[in-house]
């Protein structure tokens, strides 16, 4: 049923599986808060999977078109299925805004920081679901310095540098800032799937001129592209999580026997699974269609992404909750995997705005019909 | 186009369609919840036929447009936007496909042109008083007698049969067959034949949309057998796929949404945050459904239909339609029970729209049956009831 690049999807699935993503997620939950907070010590681990996959190379230089959107969607689906909880589009932020990774590394060496393979994740303004994304921006750039706070930045603990969006008197500023510089403090924020985001505080952090990547309208456009790519990839991951959860639930229903027959023979469960299947497949169709029309005018693309995000969040939670239910005692036990899917879905479903937030954001835009 | 931009060709086609509708579709025929005036339906069908747009999905060899996916969607969108009456799908979307696939040369020559032109309106004879969801248990008999079959029995819930010309009906030709559906055939029956009595059935909408059709010793020529003798179940299943895809069209949901907006404007609900969120929620569901519909139609055109498509689309479109109509009634506030709501100079039939939507999850295979089909035939879940240790 998949209109996306089937080969890329299959190859990515194999990659994430051999990388043992599910085991990594379970281990992260078992290791607890202290370990997650030390995420910085495991930057290699966090980025290794997508670096091995060559995601940045895949996305780099591709331009902002339907092909790249389709690639992101296919890899996202695969990552979700494998319960890969590390950075995905977040780890390719530099490429997604059309910057040259090597150029960026060169600038950072100029700063006296290690160049090499910079691990840069986005630290963007406030909410993804407001119509005026920069209105409530928590970070200001003034006199060559950053002050303020970005809350809940995914994967910040694993990164070398942040792609920071800030407000200035001259409009939006996009700058690349090393995390180990003076004035930057990170407070870990643990998530239920064992990952940790960070609340990042900037206290008069100096930004060199060459660290400023864009200003004004160019910066707004770049952040817009980044936001939309993150929303697309995140929705793909959610649909992947839901798809795999549904498949494993189906396998369980067909195998587990009670009252002299497989659970799958009970009509109540058949109807429930059919309904969830419709939710997941319709979401997959929307993901494909949104990726395919990636060139359409901005207003409608953003509205469609809000629709996709709302649907992906809501349906992934519905599927993974039902999975726990239908696995019975095994579903509620940590030994079983159903809970892993639910927890990862909870994190992704909220990461860039809740379903309700996206519904509201959709409603605030001009109607698409 | 919801997903993507119109190409210059699509845009030109869209403008052509819109302009033609402006001129050819009278105001009095527009935006009816359900058009049941046979005269209007025939006249409208004739106009669309003469313009060449009545069968965009048919092969050119049989008089269709063989339209691209985009052209089909443009026609759907513009006809919906203009509030055009629904072209009866029984001939155009259901039987037409079956005659193309299973018909004899004589049947094609006789019936296809008349389906296209609207000269013949067709009704569907499937359900019976004792055979609804369990269609294979139908009882209408067709007994061979020389060069004809003699048909006895009755059909129920046949849409528009009281003003249709012909009916395609499932009949039992081998009562001993096991399984039962191996003894069923499809007959094409002229409703003006002697022995046929048609009784219209009033629905909860207050209109005579359906009919009961009794057959008493009705002679039907053998040449009217569609497909092989005792092979009617296969023909019916072939039609069902197209029927459910057709039922999956977003047309009705789009028309209902228009009503919601009109009523909401009147009630000053546009600024009510609770209402806006509900409206955004159903619009998002419609975006999702249109994506699924578009994907399925593309697969159908490429001859790569997935068996999940018809049940999935039917479930999605019909349940969404009901959700939109729920919102429509809520938007009416204390007039939720009113017979009609005055909006500007127009009366919007809110109750009629809501009540009509209740049939969507029942006809064409109920939502429960669609879920059974998805679960059992697509997802491979076993039929309920078999117990360990029993034969």
* C-alpha geometry of chain B: globular
Cα distance, first to last residue of chain A? 26 Å
**Main sheet summary of chain A:** 4 strands, mixed
Radius of gyration of chain A over all CA atoms, rounded: 21 Å
Q: What is the succession of H and E elements of chain A?
A: HHHHHHHEEEEEEEEHEEHHHHH
What percentage of amino acids of chain A are in beta strands?
A: 15-25%
Which range does the strand content of chain B fall in?
A: 15-25%
Tell me, rounded to a whole number, the average pLDDT of chain A. 89
Structural class based on helices, strands and sheet pairing of chain A: alpha+beta
Could you give the order of strands across the largest sheet of chain A? 1-4-5-8
Tell me the total number of β-strands of chain A.
10
Largest sheet composition of chain B: 4 strands, mixed
Number of helices of chain A: 13
Please state the overall shape of chain A, judged from the principal axes of the Cα atoms: globular
Give helix and strand order of chain B, one letter per element, not per position.
HHHHHEEEEEEEEHHHHEEHH
Radius of gyration of chain B, in Å, reads: 22 Å
Fraction of helical residues of chain B? 40-55%
Q: What is the number of beta strands of chain B? A: 10
